[in-house]
């Protein structure tokens, strides 16, 4: 074959491959698709969930500490309150240590949660709290310190070891492929609070990549990454998150007027809204005011958190109490590890809003 024809054939093949790739990579959901999906869900209400016996996402899902009895009991309490969704964090180190075992435990968790009528919103990456993580025995809680053992994923190791990206890509694609049609999963929260811990735009490359990987898999569930910081330094991140999320998710720990303004602003996107973090009593973000507003506005309501336990989130972010005495005003959480509530009035409000009052 003449060289010129061989060259032309090669160019044509490359062009077809590029075209095929472009056709098989999914795009963002349309506004219509997003709203049609949301209309089928009913009002979403729940918590960020970490069992009381686990200090972080590693301890929750490691085989030695995967506490199904506690998870089943605690999610039963959630069902009793009329909650129907839980936001749950994952960590890639569990996948690298034991891919099939990790996915099997996720399936077990989903079996338990769905048996209580609860869907799951899985969080993949996270820029919050401690930078160093390891598989194995996790640290004991530091008395009175909020989230003393929580770990980022992947953390700054992604800058020191660039090959980590290959592992993260394989992790995300395997995870999403394995569960892409699982109706027990409500939504994939691809990256929690990107740019936190002073990373700001350093987190942009990974944020862009995780959306790209998700679109290549094209799960049946929507994908999102929640807005959380209005500081102008986060303008680029916020813009990307808004322009690429199928469903708009966000965090707001402020009082009702501020939260209402946030909803009014985000509503202009025309897409469904889910608040994936709210409720900090010291900040006047409380169930009695915020939850009724979210229901009225048809915004999903997922507070932080549910059970007081090893995460120590009854203590405030920036106000450690080293004596570990239970504060008079809890910062987060609803129930103690024995199932008794911090506030009976909060329980009354929650049950009234979820229709569980007379059941």
Explain the overall architecture.
Residues 145-304 form the Glycoside hydrolase family domain. Belongs to the glycosyl hydrolase 5 (cellulase A) family. Pfam families: Cellulase (PF00150). InterPro entries: GH (IPR017853), Glyco_hydro_5 (IPR001547). This is Cellulase family glycosylhydrolase. The chain has an eight-stranded parallel sheet. It has one domain (41-354): Glycosidases (TIM Barrel, Alpha-Beta Barrel), CATH 3.20.20. It is globular and about 50 Å long. Helix content is 41%, strand content 11%. The protein starts with a helix and ends in a 5-residue tail after the last helix. Residues 1-23 have low confidence and may be disordered. The protein is built from 13 helices and eight strands. It has helices at 3-24, 31-39, 57-61, 68-80, 92-97, 99-115, 157-160, 164-178, 204-217, 235-244, 256-266, 287-296, 344-354; strands at 45-48, 85-89, 119-126, 185-192, 223-224, 248-251, 273-277, 300-304. It is of the alpha/beta class and 359 residues long. The longest helix is centred in the first third of the chain and has 22 residues, at 3-24.
């Amino acid at each position: 074959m003449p060289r010129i024809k061989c060259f032309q054939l090669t160019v044509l093949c490359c062009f077809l491959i590029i075209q095929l790739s472009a056709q098989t990579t999914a795009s963002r959901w349309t506004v219509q698709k997003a709203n049609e999906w949301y209309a089928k869900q009913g009002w979403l209400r729940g918590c960020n969930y970490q069992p009381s016996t686990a200090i972080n996402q590693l301890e929750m899902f490691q085989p030695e500490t995967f506490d199904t009895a506690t998870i089943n009991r605690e999610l039963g309490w959630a069902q009793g309150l009329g909650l129907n969704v839980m936001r749950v964090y994952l960590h890639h180190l569990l996948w690298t240590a034991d891919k099939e075992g990790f996915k099997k435990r996720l399936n077990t968790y989903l079996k338990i949660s769905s048996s209580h009528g609860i869907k799951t919103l899985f969080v993949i990456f996270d820029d919050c709290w401690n930078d160093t993580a390891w598989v194995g025995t996790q640290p004991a809680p530091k008395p009175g310190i909020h989230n003393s053992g929580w770990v980022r994923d992947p953390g700054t190791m992604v800058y020191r070891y660039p090959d980590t990206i290959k592992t993260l890509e394989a992790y995300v694609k395997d995870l999403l492929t394995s569960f892409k049609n699982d109706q027990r999963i409500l939504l994939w929260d691809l990256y929690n609070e990107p740019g936190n811990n002073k990373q700001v735009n350093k987190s942009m490359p990974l944020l862009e990549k995780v959306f790209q990987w998700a679109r290549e898999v094209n799960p049946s569930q929507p994908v999102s990454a929640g807005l959380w910081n209005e500081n102008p330094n986060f303008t680029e991140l916020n813009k990307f998150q808004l322009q690429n999320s199928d469903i708009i998710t966000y965090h707001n720990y402020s009082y009702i007027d501020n939260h209402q303004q946030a909803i009014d602003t985000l509503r202009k996107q025309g897409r469904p809204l889910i608040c994936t973090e709210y409720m900090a009593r010291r900040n006047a973000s409380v169930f009695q005011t915020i939850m009724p507003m979210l229901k009225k506005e048809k915004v999903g309501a997922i507070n932080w958190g549910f059970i007081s336990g090893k995460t120590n989130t009854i203590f405030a972010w920036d106000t450690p109490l080293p004596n570990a005495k239970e504060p008079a005003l809890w910062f987060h959480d609803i129930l103690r590890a024995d199932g008794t509530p911090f506030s009976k009035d909060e329980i009354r409000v929650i049950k009234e809003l979820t229709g569980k009052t007379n059941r």
